[in-house]
Design a protein that fits this description.
There is one protein chain. The chain is of the alpha/beta class. The chain has a single domain (6-249), classed as Alpha/Beta hydrolase fold, catalytic domain (Rossmann fold, 3-Layer(aba) Sandwich). 35% of the residues lie in helices and 19% in strands. A 7-stranded mixed sheet has the order 2-4-3-5-6-10-11, with helices on both faces. Strand 3, helix 1 and strand 4 (51-54) form a beta-alpha-beta unit. The chain starts with 5 loop residues before the first strand and ends with a helix.
């Protein structure tokens, strides 16, 4: 298989599981990405003694054509099954997701009220991508759109194009999450960045305002990228996330 559509093909973007104590974390990557996107957070949680699971979503880390063949429900079923598997060895489970992964975490929290809490990084509910609605029409004529400059400074593995039929599924997922978000009741921490080129800054306030959680916090970052968990100063974000978890457990 040609790797012309994959950035940093030498990296391992497959599903992984770190066994630990009976508090588990299910980490979910974003659209076109792989599990490399959540690896820094996973490694830190592993050091803290937690159990960590990160599934690779259908259509990812193979060929962009595969992402044009799946539906958002396929992504959700993968996350759902990973949650059920984690529940077999953990007494409580936190959900953490970046970009589209954050949306899948919100849906999981709605279906499973016993989820301990949510860590949402650059949740892709409102996008900055111009003309995104045109994908509904373009998907019938064009397979992919080029993303532009690569993430040379980050250990990010994923597609360097947007598969348009897959992108339409992301927008349908967004629509479904908007209908369901008020049912979220778990403690929730949201990170959003003013410098994010993919996700609108208003997404953070939108989520905080519409979920029904008693404990919810929005952190607005100045310079973080969309893939903030891979930024060079990501330790500050990860520290805040772990502090939120520990404060909630106390």
């Amino acid at each position: 298989m040609s790797n012309q559509y994959i950035e940093k093909p030498h990296l391992d973007g497959s599903s992984f599981h770190y066994p630990g104590n009976r508090t588990g974390f299910l980490l979910v990557h974003g659209f076109t990405a792989t599990t490399t996107e959540v690896k820094p957070l996973a490694e830190r949680l592993k050091q803290e003694g937690f159990t960590v699971s990160a599934p690779l979503l259908p259509g990812h880390d193979t060929h962009p054509d595969d992402l044009n063949k799946v539906h958002w429900q396929d992504w959700y079923q993968t996350v759902r099954q990973a949650y059920l598997d984690l529940r077999e060895t953990c007494d409580q489970i936190w959900l953490g997701g970046e970009s589209m992964g954050a949306l899948l975490c919100l849906l999981t929290a709605v279906e499973f009220p016993e989820v301990a809490g949510l860590l949402l990084f650059a949740p892709a509910l409102e996008l900055k991508i111009k003309g995104s609605k045109a994908a509904y029409i373009l998907q019938h004529f064009i397979k992919y759109l080029d993303k532009g400059p690569s993430k040379d400074d980050q250990q990010w593995k994923g597609y360097n194009v947007f598969p348009l039929k897959g992108f339409v599924q992301l927008m349908r997922l967004q629509k479904h999450v908007r209908k369901q978000r008020s049912k979220v009741t778990q403690p929730t921490l949201v990170f959003i960045s003013k410098a994010d080129k993919r996700v609108s800054i208003k997404t953070g306030e939108t989520i905080i305002n519409f979920i029904s959680s008693d404990k919810k916090q929005l952190v607005v970052l100045e310079d973080a990228s969309h893939t903030m968990l891979l930024d060079r100063d990501n330790h500050q974000i990860i520290d805040q996330a772990i502090e939120f978890v520990r404060a909630t457990d106390d």
